[in-house]
């Protein structure tokens, strides 16, 4: 009965190690997704420290590859030292993921203030004639999020670009996709996106941060199960005589 319990724990542990390799790939993907998306919105969010959770989660993903290898070798070879190392590393990674979750919530709360502070400046410097990186970022966001202006399309009337062009129109990126004849004129507001971009940018960045938080929570739960199974194997290896005989190849007298 003891051997069956040990075998079951070992089987689960090996299976969890395989999951760790899959988890490592997913965590690295989530971290890379955050970096790529941040690059699209970086003009609206100047606090680079927001990327700390993404950096940590990529590092954890890379470490999980190594953890899976250590766990598989330790389980197959019945190494007490290897399993103990496996548990300690898992515990450290678990603590790291808890830190990621906390940081994720902290920076998620800061998103709205950061965007509100940056977006005003970006719109003020818009140049649709000879667009720079910030101007291209505005056009990209307005097309992708289907929005116009900071709070609505009327915000464009307060920009230097609008006053210089003197044609009573907003950028073409404000035009609805379903309107083929739109030229950005304020005389036809029904052709323009009605919603402002600030709230949508905040929502998008907060969603990205939630991806990091949920990924960290999900794999922290898996790691807890891995630590539990490893501890069961370690405890029974030291206490169960039948298990010691199974390892050494001995028999009862």
Automatic annotation (TrEMBL):
Intracellular or extracellular location(s): Membrane
Pfam families in alphabetical order: Tetraspanin (PF00335)
Membrane-spanning ranges: 12-36, 48-71, 83-107, 212-235
InterPro entries linked: Tetraspanin/Peripherin, Tetraspanin_animals, Tetraspanin_CS, Tetraspanin_EC2_sf
Keyword Transit peptide: no
GO cellular component, one term: plasma membrane
Keyword Coiled coil appears in the UniProt entry: no
Keywords recorded for this protein, A-Z: Glycoprotein, Membrane, Transmembrane, Transmembrane helix
Membrane protein topology class: Multi-pass membrane protein
Cross-referenced Gene3D superfamilies: Tetraspanin
CDD domains associated with the record: TM4SF8_like_LEL
Family classification: Belongs to the tetraspanin (TM4SF) family.
Subunit relationships: Interacts with claudin-11/CLDN11 and integrins.
Role according to the record: Regulates the proliferation and migration of oligodendrocytes, a process essential for normal myelination and repair.
Name listed for the protein in its UniProt record: Tetraspanin
Name of the gene this protein is made from: TSPAN3
């Amino acid at each position: 009965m003891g051997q069956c319990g040990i075998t079951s724990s070992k089987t689960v542990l090996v299976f969890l190690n395989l999951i760790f390799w899959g988890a490592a790939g997913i965590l690295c993907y989530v971290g890379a997704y955050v970096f790529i998306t941040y690059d699209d919105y970086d003009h609206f969010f100047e606090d680079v420290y927001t990327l700390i959770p993404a950096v940590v989660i990529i590092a954890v993903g890379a470490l999980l590859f190594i953890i899976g290898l250590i766990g598989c070798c330790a389980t197959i070879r019945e190494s007490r030292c290897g399993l103990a190392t496996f548990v300690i590393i898992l515990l450290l990674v678990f603590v790291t993921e808890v830190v990621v979750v906390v940081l994720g919530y902290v920076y998620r709360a800061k998103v709205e203030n950061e965007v509100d502070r940056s977006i005003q400046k970006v719109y003020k410097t818009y140049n649709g004639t000879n667009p720079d990186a910030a101007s291209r970022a505005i056009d990209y966001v307005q097309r992708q999020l289907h929005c116009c202006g900071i709070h609505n399309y009327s915000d464009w009337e307060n920009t230097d670009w609008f006053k210089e062009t003197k044609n009573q129109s907003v950028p073409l990126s404000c035009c609805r996709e379903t309107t083929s004849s739109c030229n950005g004129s304020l005389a036809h507001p029904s052709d323009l996106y009605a919603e402002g971009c600030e709230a949508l940018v905040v929502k998008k960045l907060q969603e990205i941060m939630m991806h990091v938080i949920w990924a960290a929570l999900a794999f922290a739960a898996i790691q807890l199960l891995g630590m539990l199974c490893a501890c069961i194997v370690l405890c029974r290896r030291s206490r169960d005589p039948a298990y010691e005989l199974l390892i050494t190849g001995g028999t009862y007298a």
